[in-house]
Records
---
Amino acid sequence: MAGVMSTLFQRTWWSLLIKGLAALVFGLLAIAAPTALLKAVITIFGIFVLVVGIVATVGAAMHRKESKMWMLVFVPGLVGIIIGIISIVAPSAIAVIFVYLIAIWALVIGIGELYGAFKLRKDIAGEWVPIATGALAVLLGLILLIKPMAAGKAFMLLVGFFFLVMGLLWLLLAFRARKWHKVVEKTEAPPQT
């Protein structure tokens, strides 16, 4: 379990926890008011993506000396910060391109998660959660790019469902990574005298 990706997940399990909780909150809001609060949801989405982006970039930057793979978390984090700021500053103007922003963000996140997941599988056999989150994100991105005008209530319900599932998977991965971190801490602890 001493591989690069498992070490990165172990040390930044808290960022997965925050991302999971933020995704659950956003998913519930998107499902509760799919059309009436689209402008508010765009702003909330912007806040969510900004928080996830900041957490990802800070977590990656903190461990850049320990892992050559830190850019896999840092770059999607920067993309999230940019998209988050645009969504918060100009929610009305961004409504037109909102679908494309979510699609691009989902693809960037998904590809990064899938790449990291396959690196992680070298260290931890049978770990499926990061693969599921990456595949789900890529699927959402592709659906939104192929059918961008299928918006409205169905669009918001789809996005809400996606974030609920993604949030649950991130929470599951956070608790697993925390468990891995505790196991590593116990094995690396100096012997008691």
Note: The chain has a mean pLDDT of 78.
---
Amino acid sequence: MIRFFRGEEKVVSRINQLIDKGIGISSVSLAELYHGAEKSMKTKQGIRDIKRLLDVPDIQALNFKDKEAREFGKLMNKLEKAGLKISPVDLLIAVTAKVNKLIILTGDKKHFSRLNRFGIKVEAL
């Protein structure tokens, strides 16, 4: 989403292609965005950008609930058994996408692409 806010053409174009189908953003991702805004030199602008994003009717904030928590536990166990490490925050985002049957759009191909084999769809931008 940071690349979207910065107006990166590839990211903006992809979001515009998908917006009519609906877009979800994990509450965990929102927390990361708010953290970035708070530590920014342009805190007020960052928070305004986040609020404008959430005002778009086709963008839905997805809260972390019981189903996501259960999926987190299962997937973290599988990753540990496979000897794969991923940050818990990234995994929270990933299981939110999986439970809601969404594709993760990310610039972080290194971490998220390892999750394809666990039924999580990832598209690197």
Note: The longest strand covers residues 23-26.
